[in-house]
Design goal:
alpha/beta; Rossmann fold; UDP N-Acetylglucosamine Acyltransferase, domain 1; 6-stranded parallel β-sheet; 2 helices
């Protein structure tokens, strides 16, 4: 990935995505933020309010950790979306990754897994074979999703949580850190 892209967001998750872009040689000319306190520039990147006419040819990734806000912005944004895969992540050849989703450092997505749109698979997370991850889910760092498990839309899987084989996490549920869901 050496293609330029835009980021909607200017906080912590957005900074992780900008760093991922730098690692791959991609340019991030603009980060959009609704918070004027972030406006200005950072590392040769302009930070400003969203403008659909600014770099309309470049795809955008939503650099927002909050699932509900990501979903609202996905409807608002006029740019096309791109996904990001960290070079140290592993995604099986027959796994499907949806539009705008990100798979971060040392994360693993195993065979036949299905990842929805605008999903965050955070650093060190493991999505085992045949798992289904719904749209706008956040799988936090070092979480494990067992084979055949289903994580429904908008759920948050906390850091270090374990979702066992074939378990179901319902829409919008927040699984606390270090919890086991059977």
């Amino acid at each position: 990935m050496s293609t330029s892209f835009l980021i909607y967001g200017a906080g912590g998750h957005a900074n992780v995505l900008a760093d991922l872009g730098m690692l791959t040689g991609a340019e991030v000319p603009v980060m959009f933020s609704d918070d004027a306190a972030h406006h200005g520039s950072r590392n040769n990147t302009i930070i400003r309010s969203y403008d659909p006419l600014l770099f309309p040819e470049l795809p955008l990734v939503l650099g927002i950790g909050n699932n509900n806000v990501r979903e609202i912005l996905a409807e608002k944004v006029a740019h096309s979306f791109t996904g990001l895969l960290h070079s140290t992540s592993y995604v099986a050849a027959n796994a499907a990754i949806g539009e705008g989703s990100v798979v971060l450092a040392n994360a693993v997505v195993q065979a036949n897994s299905r990842i929805g749109n605008h999903v965050i698979i955070n650093a060190g997370a493991v999505i085992d074979h045949d798992a289904v991850i719904g749209d706008f889910v956040h799988v936090s760092a070092n979480a494990y999703i067992g084979g055949g498990a289903v994580i429904e839309k908008g759920a948050v899987i906390g850091p270090g949580a374990i979702i066992t084989r074939h378990a179901v996490v319902k829409q919008g549920v927040v699984v606390p850190p270090l919890t086991v869901v059977a």
